[in-house]
Amino acid sequence: MDGSQRTGVTSEDKRNSVSFMSLPAELRNQIYELTLVGKTSIQMTYVNDKGRSGLPPGLDEIFPFHCSDGTATTALRSLALLNKQVMNESQSFFYANNAFSVKVDQSGTPFVQGCVDFLEHCGTQGRASLKKLTIEGKRRGTAEHKLLHGDPEILDTFFRLLQQCKTLEVLDIITCGHVVYCAERDEEMPAEKSLPELCLGLRDIFGPSKKAWTWDEVPRC
Questions:
Q1: CB within 8 A of 130, min separation 6: which ones?
Q2: SS3 assignment, position 190
Q3: What is the predicted pLDDT for the residue at 174?
């Protein structure tokens, strides 16, 4: 008994099979639209091992994140298994057509590290396609609470990755329930520049490498 008999796959089946990439681009985009786009913004919650047990059930895990839309992320992983071309195409569609809200209930270096982990998780293709990003830091704090500062090397990595988000259209940073930074691309901005490169005040929020802003000191957007 040969392999085709064992699996039930005949030579005619193989001749009639159609690869995913052989489908018209319009049809592939329709498939991506149905499988990869969330109904609302995709919530990515950053956790460490200590906080893992306190998470609500039913969230899809993308360590070190938990995602509110397991269907879209599961579909993304499944499509990525087909081949590299499908992986790149589906990642581009996923990050370009969803709004992402990254929640890192930390301040200082742990907050910046959470941002770095998310951007690294996106990969080169994802960062190049990302359009809408909201980063939420520590939910509670006082004017004396040290909000935004971090290790110089981690800060440099954060800004380097952020500058690779060349198609980013909306960037909001929220901490203690207040928007401390917001930027939106307009038609007059040069297309070859990333939004973070155009919004130089972003780095001022994090301050010099050894500066720790308190709430009263944070420059407002």
A1: 95, 96, 100, 122, 165, 167, 168
A2: coil
A3: 81
Token pair recorded at residue 71: 């269907």
Q: What is the pTM of this model?
A: 0.73
- Catalogue the E-assigned strands of the chain: 42-46, 60-62, 65-67, 99-103, 132-136, 170-175, 178-184
Backbone φ and ψ of 41, nearest 5°: -60, 145
- Rounded Cα distance between 175 and 163, Å, is 21
User: What is the Cα 64 distance to its own chain's centre?
Assistant: 12
How high is the pLDDT of residue 11? 55
Residue 190 pLDDT: 64
Q: Walk along the chain (221 residues) in steps of 10 and give the mean pLDDT of each run.
A: 52 58 93 90 73 41 61 84 89 94 84 88 91 85 53 83 87 76 70 61 53 47 43
Contacts for 3 with CB less than 8 Å, ≥ 6 apart: 9
pLDDT of residue 215: 43
Find out whether 182 and 172 touch, Cβ atoms under 8 Å.
yes
Give residue 221's identity as a one-letter amino acid code. Answer: C
| Per-domain residue ranges of the chain | 23-217
Does residue 45 contact residue 55 with C-beta atoms inside 8 Å? yes
User: Taking the alpha carbons of 169, 91, 33, 20 in that order, is the dihedral positive or negative?
Assistant: positive
Expressed in angstroms, the distance from the first to the final Cα of the chain is 71
CA distance 171 to 52: 27
